[in-house]
Specification:
This protein is mostly helical. The chain is built from 5 helices and no strands. The radius of gyration is 22 Å and the shape is globular.
Length: 164
């Protein structure tokens, strides 16, 4: 265990960690990132990491992305790159707005209502881009947001517990 007493050479330096049990300064830096604006940044990164593949799979299953018969895109199908950009745009728009509102929530019903509002908005935006299959667009948003709400919450809780 490291000594908590400063030497003459380091006495004037500001402390970099309040930990005295051998933890690295990295833990304090990570804790700062996890707690900034109530933990928005890791929640946003996790949301994107979870929702991107879920949306892409759902888009494919619902026939909203990829090639049509004969290898050509038909109608308003999204190319895979455009689909990925759309998902990241959806999250860049909806996540900070939802997060700022959700910080004031005091119960599960408000959280559920907020998540359902995000599903509706994201489903509408997807439909505005593809202009077809509105229920499929809404279903894609529902599945992606349910996955990120459940998995993201569990992962954030675990990560926060590890650095506490």
């Amino acid at each position: 265990m490291a000594s908590t007493r400063a030497s003459a050479a380091t006495a004037s330096m500001p402390p970099t960690s309040s930990a005295t049990d051998g933890r690295l300064v990295v833990v304090d830096a990570l804790r700062g990132v996890l707690t900034w604006w109530g933990g928005w940044l890791p929640a946003f990164v996790l949301t994107c990491a979870i929702e991107l593949p879920v949306y892409l799979i759902m888009f494919e299953l619902c026939g909203l992305t990829g090639s049509g018969p004969g290898g050509t895109t038909t109608g308003r199908r999204l190319g895979r790159g455009r689909a990925a950009a759309l998902v990241l745009l959806l999250n860049a728009v909806s996540h900070p707005i939802f997060w700022s509102v959700a910080l004031g929530f005091d119960g599960g019903r408000q959280l559920l209502a907020g998540e359902l509002a995000v599903v509706a908005v994201e489903g509408l935006i997807v439909w505005l881009v593809v202009r077809r299959r509105p229920l499929a667009c809404l279903g894609c948003a529902l599945v992606a947001n349910a996955a990120s709400a459940v998995l993201g919450s569990a992962l954030l809780e675990t990560l926060t517990a590890l650095v506490s």
